[in-house]
Amino acid sequence: MNVAITVNGQVQNVEVAANTLLVNVLREQLGLTGTHVGCDTSQCGACTVHLDGRAVKSCSVLAVQAQGAQVVTIEGIGSTDDLHPMQAAFQDCHGLQCGFCTPGMIMQAIDLVTDAQSQSKPLDSDAIRHGLEGNICRCTGYQNIVAAVAKGAAELSSKAKGA
Amino acid sequence: MYSFDYHRPDSLDSARSLFAQAEDPMYLSGGMTLIPSMKQRLAAPSDLIDLSGLAELQGVERLDGDGKIRIGALTCHNDVANSALVLEQLPVLAQVAGAIGDNQVRNRGTLGGSIANSDPAADWPAALVGLQATIHTQDRQIAVEDFFRDLFETALAAEDIVVAVDFAIPRRATYQKFRHPASGYAVVGVLIAEHDNGIRVGVTGAGPCAFRACALEDALNNSFTEEALDAVDVPDVGFNSDIHASAEYRSHLVKVLSKRAVAQLRSES
Q1: Does B63 touch chain A if contact means CB atoms closer than 8 Å?
Q2: Which of A27, A131, B42, B170 has the fewest Cβ atoms nearer than 10 Å?
Q3: Which residue, A71, A135, A148, is CA-closest to B101?
Q4: Cβ–Cβ of B1/A60 closer than 8 Å?
Q5: Which fold has domain B172-268?
Q6: Which CATH number fits domain B1-53: 3.30.379.10, 3.30.43.10, 3.40.50.10490, 1.25.40.10?
């Protein structure tokens, strides 16, 4: 089947079988290997991307379901020279060790901040931990990840106010 | 995952006719259970009929006549949890929806998909039972008492599509859940609601499917106190027993969570 998906702002026409997962299109057909396959059973969240603006686990979405949709991956939010505020916060707070879970953590964290801002909900430590329940890190014990998300959230919200 | 033919119809009629023509079809909603099941080859439909193009199955509204809240079957859990209407008029639904799985799952998984699957540990079924829900399919209405039949079994025929669910608005209600720390599913979940016509206690996780705990309802109708529940026996006959919890422990949890719910509601009033 031919599927048109807008990935990081560019329309991509890909030929896929119906049973191809979105994550496999991103990694294998489009070369966007920042999105990781961790557990492949929708538990770990390493494959988290934004689908029409919302965090989803791309190992549990068929590529055909993304027909006509907007997908943003970790490659779409910033670059080495111009980090997204959430990426910078993970670097500043040392919110990672091996880094395997980090792209998924960051994509989920951005969703969390966007959601809290649009609902005017506070994003305290409990809310961050609840929001990261779908992302598993096997190195860090989460403390610095939570600190990074809080810092990234503060940066993004002061940016939003400044804009 | 085995191969299949994929369809995304734009109307209920076309979804039904695709279903009728296919050899061994299944409907796809959010896919948060079905796609992992297909990856494990526990499900292998010949045709997958994706309902996500049916806009009429989306949304939350207040019904004028009988003052109920109607939720479209394709509404995802987070859209219920964040709905201003739900938060104002029936906040317990937001409490239930916000307790499901994790955020990514709540962004995809839907009310209709959850109840059609009737997982014994799903959260929504306790809410349907406790809030006297009516389930609408494309051509009929099913009272919740007739809907949940057994493990992964409902009153739905294979070709039926859940269109919407109506929930009664109680005077007050709360949901208490003993959450499995890894999966997020309810080891046991209890929703207690006080309606004009009495108390309803909806239980999920304990048995093969969600049910009303009538003995607990009777006790609470007599006296809405935690102590009133002490005298009630919750038999564990037919309860689920697995590596996570024995039937006896689940029976114990039904009572503990019911007491927590009563304590919560009494502290709010």
Answers
A1: no
A2: B42
A3: A135
A4: no
A5: Enolase-like; domain 1 (3.30.390)
A6: 3.30.43.10
